[in-house]
Amino acid sequence: MSVLDNFDTWKEFLGGRLQQAQKDGLDNRTVENVAFEIGDYLAQQVEPKNAEERILAELWKVASDEEQHAIANMMVKLVQGKEVH
């Protein structure tokens, strides 16, 4: 089973990679840039495996560069479990 088959599995995988990157000393700006690159690659090269990925891919395709960075930043926050009130 691929990590892309299930959205919760994908979030867990991404969260684990994020924790490792931060443990290795990458700052938040670098992590956000990597998330942007991953999002761009996935939107351009990988067929969505579930409804959540399909929505993200469609949003990514219609978003401006600035909006894509915001989506990537929100995905980082999502897997970190951060909530803004």
Q: What is shown here, in short?
A:
By secondary structure, the chain is an all-alpha fold. Helices cover 74% and strands 0% of the residues. The model has no long low-confidence stretch (mean pLDDT 83).
Mean pLDDT: 83
C-alpha-based Rg, rounded: 13 Å
The poorly predicted ranges are: none
The CATH architecture term is: Orthogonal Bundle
What is the quaternary state of this protein?
single chain
Roughly what fraction of the amino acids lie in strands?
under 5%
Q: Number of helical segments?
A: 4
Tally of separate domains:
1
**How many strands in all?**
0
**CATH fold-level label:** Cytochrome Bc1 Complex, Chain D, domain 2
Order of helices and strands: HHHH
Detailed description of the structure:
74% of the residues lie in helices and 0% in strands. The protein has one domain: Protein of unknown function DUF3243 (Cytochrome Bc1 Complex, Chain D, domain 2, Orthogonal Bundle), CATH 1.10.760.20. The chain has helices spanning 7-23, 28-45, 51-62, 65-80. α1 crosses α4 and α2 (28-45) packs across α4 (65-80). With 85 residues, the chain is mainly alpha-helical. It has 4 helices and no strands. The longest helix is centred in the middle third of the chain and has 18 residues, at 28-45. The radius of gyration is 13 Å and the shape is globular.
